[in-house]
Amino acid sequence: MKRFDINPDITRAQTPPGSFYGVPEFHAAAADRVFTTSWQLLAEAGELDAEPGAVHPFILLPGCLDEPLLLVREDGDERRCLSNVCTHRGMLLADKPGIRQRLRCGYHGRTFDLAGRMTGMPEFEEAFDFPGPADHLRSLDLKQWGPLTFTGLAPDQAFETWLEPVRDRMGFLPLEAFTFDPARSRDYEVSANWALYCENYLEGFHIPFVHPELNKALDWKSYEVELEGRTVLQIGIDSGNGAVFELPSGHPDAGKKVAAYYWWLFPNLMLNFYPWGLSANLVEPTGPTTCRVRFLGYVWGGELLDQGAGGLLDAVEMEDEAVVEAVQLGVKARLYDRGRYSPTQEKGTHHFHRLLVDALFGE
Fold it and tell me: 3-state class of 95 per DSSP?
């Protein structure tokens, strides 16, 4: 895998080489060095049955990490995230959701309780020093913020540190009152590398050229971008009389007609806050030149639905997909190598690329 660098000086920097967006080696490296060490939003958490003993198997980032996991609900309503792989010979433990008192491997009969502890195994009476810690199922941390649930295989940053900029800015919202809305939740299959989708999200530079209706709703020249830690915040200012946030006095944006807060968290999460609630977008790499974008809607101010910038989500998504799929075709052209950044409009994209290069090639 050939290394490339991103100059920290945006006025001199070049974008990644076009080959980055389609080479299997980069896709594999991102799985190991970017996604294995990151926090991931669990879209599946809302599907876990509320009854004690509920078990919900799922794959974390299919096509990228392909990690078999289990969400379980113990007595007392405690939730856990466990490996779905038997510690004996690697058999999958559960293949469908259900209510269970224990987990039993269908290969050789090893059993586990819902906390992941091995509780029984036939024909192992003579095994020395058995069971040991490695015979129990691995358990991953589960973190909750409002209606959102997160986990990670081996996060290299504390959850609180990763989320802190978002928490500080959006703390005025009653996230505990946000309700999941299936009607505003869907998956999109995109024929483009996951990083291209993130790059497009991280700049408003393209809005006047790609999103005619969104451009009417937002005052593009008042667009603000802030970089902090592993986050990028884009603030959309209403251009007329659309829905805006009622910001408390003392808030950093008090007095502004904020129509949308667009948060990106490294590597692949977008949290789009509108006066009606939240659209969480998770970009899942499914191959070197494909990704799945999952939209999860959480409604609070239902009377404001379909108003302003937050009412154009489907149309904007279709426009974005058309652009990034065309770019995917363009970056593999023999006559294209690397581009340059707009110092005024592409700060977020530049920040993303620097974080990505550090994760891929850093010590």
Answer: coil
Cα–Cα distance measured from residue 68 to residue 82, given in angstroms and rounded to the nearest whole number: 9
CA-based nearest residue to 227, from 203, 200, 255: 203
8 Å CB contact between 112 and 118: yes
**How far apart, in whole angstroms, are the C-alpha atoms of residue 17 and residue 163?**
30
| Residue pLDDT, tens place only, 71-95 | 999 887 789 999 999 999 999 999 9
Give the tokens for residue 127. Answer: 């095994």
Tokens 């058309």 found at: 322
pLDDT of residue 212: 87
Distance CA 110, CA 257 (A): 59
Residue 356 — left, alpha, or beta (φ > 0 → left; ψ -120 to 50 → alpha)?
alpha
Residue-wise pLDDT for 277-323, tens only, equals: 999 999 999 999 999 999 999 998 777 767 666 667 778 889 999 99
> What contacts 24+ positions apart, CB below 8 Å, involve 348-352?
348/202, 348/203, 348/225, 348/227, 348/232, 348/234, 348/264, 349/15, 349/199, 349/202, 349/203, 350/6, 350/10, 350/13, 351/202, 351/227, 351/232, 352/195, 352/198, 352/199, 352/202, 352/232, 352/264, 352/266
Q: Quote the CA–CA distance of 74 and 53 in Å, as a whole number.
A: 5
Q: Which residues pair with 116 in a beta bridge?
A: none
Helices and strands counted in the chain (H then E): 7, 18
- The first and second tokens of residue 220, run together, are 């593009």
Closest to 93 (Cα-Cα) out of 64, 113, 65: 113
Q: Per residue in 227-266, pLDDT tens?
A: 999 999 999 999 988 889 999 999 999 999 999 999 999 9
* Strand partners of residue 261: 235, 273
Distance CA(173)–CA(148), nearest Å, equals 14
Q: Indicate the pTM of the whole model.
A: 0.95
